[in-house]
Amino acid sequence: MLKSVLFSVVCLFLLPVVVMAQQEVAGNIRNSVTHEVVPAVSVVLKDTPNGDYTNDQGNFRFSTRKSFPLTLLISAVGFESRVLTITAPGFQRIVLTPATVLGKEVVVSASRLVQRKIESPVTIERIGTKDIINSPQPSYYNMLQGLKGVDVTTSSLTFTTITTRGFNTSGNTNFTQIVDGMDNQAPGLNFPLGAVIGLTELDVDNVELLAGASSALYGSRGLNGTLVMTGKDPFKYQGLSAQITQGVNHIRKGKGNDPLGPSPYYDWTVRWAKKINDRLAFKINVQYTRAKDWVAADTTNTNGVGGPLQDPNYNAVNGYGSKTSIDINPFLQGALAQQPELAPLINPLLGKGSNKVARTGYPEYGYLSSEAILFKANAELRYKIRPQLEMIVSGTFGKGNAVYSNDTRYALTGFSLGQYRAELKAANWFVRAYTSQENSGRTIIASPTAQLINEAWKPSYHEATGDGWYPQYTAALLTAMAGGKSYEEACVWARSAADAGRPEAGSPQFLQLKDSIAGIPTSKGGTLFLDKSKLYNVEGQYNFSSLLKYVTLIAGLNYRLYRLDSKGTLFPDEAQPIDVAEYSAYVHLAKKLIRDKLSLSAAFRYDKNTLFEKPRMTSRAAAVLEVNKESFIRFSYQNAYSFPSNIQSLQSTLIDYNSFASGGSARLLQGVYQFDQYPAYTLESVQKYQQTNNPADLQKFQLNDIMPQSVDAFELGYASLIGGCVLVDVLGYYATWKNFIGYVNVANTPGTQDITAFKNHSTYTQYNIAYNGAEHVNTYGYAASVSVDLSRHFLAKVNFSADFLKNRNNSQVNNFNTPNYKFNIDFGNTGFGKKERYAFNTTFRYRPAYFYQIGFGSGTVPASAVIDAQCSYRLLQAHSTIKLGATNLTNTYYRNGFGSPAIGGLYYISFAYNVF
């Protein structure tokens, strides 16, 4: 006992000696030109895991048991690396020399390994923190539209969908978006939600975009590309940062059919990160955006030429309620039977064949809310169990209003998505678990809600009384013609008479009707989604390269569970939620040959979805040949696939609108299994039969179970850094699609096999069905980019791309919505003048006119030429920057999707504190 006490006392007295053996290394790092501090610089003690990052004051500090002299490895993006030897204790004052980053960017997502972008085996684009700071775009997400080969659809100010290789539509389900390792898709709707739940503006470390097929590494849905976004490490990026952006849009009321006048734009972002000690760090991010949204106001008649005064069946692209369209011939025949003396007026009308009349629609403005609101918050805690082993716990929540387009416009009000993660990460492996929690909020489905509003204030036809909007219209039409009015004048007069008492958009009566209809679930005849679906995901990956001498080997496992819970409004889950599981395993191998001049790699992935009997295997093979030190030829084959989305796969009606579309109720089906008992005909043949009464015109549509689609893609590319100042990247690709999933409109009679009911009742049930086309669809294209370092921080970039589709299945809506070519030009400077206080950047984006096809219509998107610009001034002592910028500087309204809003200029001033 006495020995134990003495031993403890000795250890207690020796403890300070052990502590004193620790050497402290500390210092400050500054820019050699401007003399301002440089944050986020990596300072590592050579051959040890010890080190630190400089904080927002440029300071670093860490301890080591090694004795002097000590060798420090110092590196930071945009600066020349340094190796510094310290011979004695003391506070080190270090300067770094700025350097070009052209050709030195590193990426991870191309192969799940750190490698130079120029040496990537596949096409990849990258945006870093410095790019975001110098961009004219107030949102980093909108910067993506200037990258090589990228297409976007802007459905609203807060909802932008991106894609590559041509297949472009709002809410693209074949594009994967990953944020800090978490799939960003909404569990129920199955598509990425743009920037709604992405990183806040100040927390973006980098964004990497893989063009085209990427399933072998990232799983189902990666047919049109994968976007990988990485947030800032609180150990590396420390301090309090804030950015306040105030602006104005809708500058000229009436231009581009814009019904709004000048409106304020607000975007406020705060980030706070702190390293509490060498083991513990945290960060908190908050961003709030509010503005008046862009308004979809295309008044083009979807039925052809003519406006509301010329065409009684007028249905505007962005008019809602006028899809209720009925042939009034039965009412004309009824009037003729009761008043034979009207035969001279009625018989010529009946002789025309069909006399379709649409109910009066509502424009989007005044109907859908124009309040664009987005709130995002994130908190993350990191704890280093050991220098090479880290535990991460994070939570992210996003809520707001957004609008997207599909078979109509969907206004998501109060939509929210939360993602919560726990992760263990080491140098060679990680284990990650996360969940996504979706809440659809209050959704206004534009077209059917407006149709139901029309029916609520005055039914189209009331069988019990024989009265209604259409009987009143017909009676007024005949009265006006009998009074001497022309047919066109009588149609206008009849509509005015039938619309008597119609509530104006925005009126108390209109709002009451809209709120009541939008508050009734789709399963009960309204238009409300009650979706609170969830996603649970567990995955792990191990890099065996340190254990294997001759090959790089990475392997991983993934398990995913979708818990679909829409209360019957999206899925057949009225009784209980539906579980859909996916199991995955992947392996990636890489090997260098011929004195490391040739890099070969291959990846294989196995996926099983419980909705489908057969699993899917995907693969990627690539070769990169080093022509010289800074020139590389790459070739790759990639196979990608997607299981149909949950909505497409499940045996259910997606939405039962009960909306009187085309004279009957409309249902949108994304997978057809339970409706074989009804005849299904192509919609065009039904409409033709209504006019001809010839059964031969009815073309039967074959209903089959939907299958996964896949693509085999080949790509050849070349990247070269010439003279250290010119970076060139060119590529060409060719892809073959199998079991391609497109959409078709079909119709049947409600609950009867009698095809004459189409004629007798002038009503039918319309379906929009996802199905596999039998043809092999091919896509191909090419692209090129050139970046030139003009010295003194001047940089010019230009990129060009072209995408084409052949073997188009004209019976499908295939969503290949891209111009045949497009190009972008970028010119800027990140620091000039005294102490490099000034900066500017200008971009130019050109898109020729192109055909755009979507669920509720198709048409030509006009050509657009858009200029974005910004200039900024740095307040060095205050660690702040003032930026004056504009997107669409000339305020020339343009659209990038059919039925999407026209986008005008946004002019802003931004103040950023401690942003780096």
Please provide a written account of the structure.
Residues 117-226 form the TonB-dependent receptor plug domain. Residues 1-21 form the signal peptide. This is TonB-dependent receptor. Among the domains are: 18-96, Immunoglobulin-like (Sandwich), CATH 2.60.40.1120; 299-363 and 459-500, no CATH class. Helices cover 13% and strands 44% of the residues. It has 12 helices and 50 strands. Helix 4 packs antiparallel against helix 5 (343-351) and helix 7 packs antiparallel against helix 8. The chain is elongated. The model is unreliable at 5-10, 12-20, 651-678 and 750-762 (pLDDT under 50).
Task: Note the main attributes of this structure.
22-stranded antiparallel beta barrel, 44% strand
Give the overall shape, derived from the CA principal axes. Answer: elongated
Report the span from N to C terminus: 59 Å
Portion in strands? 35-45%
User: Percent range for helical residues?
Assistant: 10-25%
What does the largest sheet look like? 22 strands, antiparallel, barrel
Topology, number of strands: 50
Low-pLDDT parts are: 5-10, 12-20, 651-678, 750-762
**Structural class label:** mainly beta
What is the rounded Rg? Answer: 31 Å
Number of helices: 12
In round numbers, the mean pLDDT is: 87
Quick rundown:
This protein is mainly beta. The protein starts with a helix and ends with a strand. InterPro entries: CarboxyPept-like_regulatory, Plug_dom, Plug_dom_sf, TonB-dep_rcpt-like.
